[in-house]
């Protein structure tokens, strides 16, 4: 029989993927029939489902979101990670509300049966859903397929989409036909390569004594982990994962019965969930439960002829990541994108599609989803391995050190890596939902591929490493010769009473004294210029340290870099900081946020801690001892700036909160509310004013010093460059002043080079992430280069950060 007179899609399976796909097809008036093996559409099989923003965004497009939100919901208000004894390792507040703010949709957890009911009720043609129709056999026909069910019915269609789960009959038939009709198309051992690393007890309990609603618990352990979530109607959803003694593959993966479940429960009945509740307490109040092995795989080929598999039949992650159902929804959306794109190229209808055109649709679907499906499967596998202490050293470092330090933004960022790269149905409107983070398909420009991004990052870090190596060649400060006040001989000051410490201070003061007291104007001019351009490094290292997205990284410790500038030189610290920034700096706009009181503290702290001491240290005075004191104090200017920033911000914080109630409950509630400040832009105008201040100071210094050099016939080349070959073992410089001047020139040169490279990498980073268009990136890069000559390195950096702040803050608006 020729089925080309009409186009009908046979959907095998009325689960989340099958019913979602049916709703999508109805939006485009594409005929379909669903074959469901169960006797009812939403059977009470005891499973729960987590819906994340990537899945909800697509469900919103097909009109199901409001119905889903109308279900009884209980969002998790407290999210805990606990150790194997039930003791808290980390706590996070209002995760679902944060996801709503960040992505426009919350995280929902409820009975899978309820979602199936919503999807089914949304269907216009419910008569197209056939129950008790388990697929038994598939045969290709001219222009279509013929499906035989277990009860002997034969259903004809143009194509069949198998969304019938990990034990997919459609996949088995597809492999059979592939081996028969096109040997070699599928590898003969594909099913045998599917691994199972864990088994899982999951189910639904209700009215568990002592259970607190609105909580989610992740339990870590040696070889086990748990995910236990509060649900509506006083429900508790649990997943208890236990690592198999050895990885099983394919046909060797066991299937469990009720007797196996009883033994599993006995083995783990005393496993803590909290310090007061065990797995046994939850299991005793179960409504339903199941023990199952966990397949983890992404099949290499999802289609043959006019057959395609989607959802768990094609890509099955560990459920710890909550992306199984969401990933299936995404796959259905990509299938629709390919189908409707092909439909729009037809002059007649889909009924005339050839086998080659059907293959194109299937191929485009898999191409759009395969890598992302692998990403989701791999991410879930790594998460499970981390929770179950497969690598104890790594798990201990993460859960007992890194996670408590990093804060909740790092958790949201890891989630965003999965959520933001999701798809939509391209030919359906997307309802407006305000969100702080745009999905990747909403960005101004398509992000650069991961491989290219990785290569550029590695190249940049290698270049910074090369600079650090060159610094080691160039820095040849004669430490033992230092300690004199220019040509006046040793200072011999008693600064502290400690001879060793006094010598160190004499050494630092001596480094400044030589160029400032010398007769040659060029070294003095170079030093004045150099220290004036250190405002931006001090300021921006500090700002980056206070950004919420940099918590838990070395970037969050700006004093390491600012103090290192004085001890090791900015020429060495700039490439080190740039490399760490490229490795670990925040990428999401929400990580940009700096508390307003910190932003307000920056200008007074910078002025008192660095600008004024610098002016007094550089300005010669009649009182030599007083001048020496200012030069000595200047050595502490960076840590003084950091300390003043901290102190002023704390004082401002106290002033803001002093009128509020000091009760513990109200203080905790205020802290929770303030965690949502990262989605505001109250800090942006303050920070931009700070950048203007830094720009004005450094640009003025740059222009004034260049003008002075020009008017006094001082060679800029000799002042800032004219350096010896760093690869020569001996430089034979004439005196100590020349050696110090050479050190400062190299320090400035390497610092400027590292900062210039870091500025350009920051522009690249914005383009890589899709936050700016290519032309904007090009213009910004030109501005960075041009700014070096026009306003100087420091002012250019301040201007770049002014613009960058605006770019990041505007993305979520």
From TrEMBL:
InterPro entries noted in UniProt: FAD-bd, FAD/NAD-bd_sf, FAD_mOase_fung
Question: Per its UniProt record, what SUPFAM superfamilies does this chain match?
Answer: FAD/NAD(P)-binding domain
Tell me which residues make up the FAD-binding domain: 8-342
Gene3D superfamilies, per database record: FAD/NAD(P)-binding domain
What cofactors does the UniProt entry give for this protein? FAD
Q: Which residues span the membrane? A: 598-619, 777-803
Q: Which UniProt keywords apply?
A: FAD, Flavoprotein, Membrane, Oxidoreductase, Transmembrane, Transmembrane helix
Please name one Pfam family that this protein belongs to. Answer: FAD_binding_3
**One example GO MF annotation:** monooxygenase activity
Q: In which pathway does it act?
A: Secondary metabolite biosynthesis
Family stated for the protein in its record? Belongs to the paxM FAD-dependent monooxygenase family.
What is this protein's name?
FAD binding domain protein
Species this protein is from: Truncatella angustata
Q: What is the lineage of its organism?
A: Eukaryota, Fungi, Dikarya, Ascomycota, Pezizomycotina
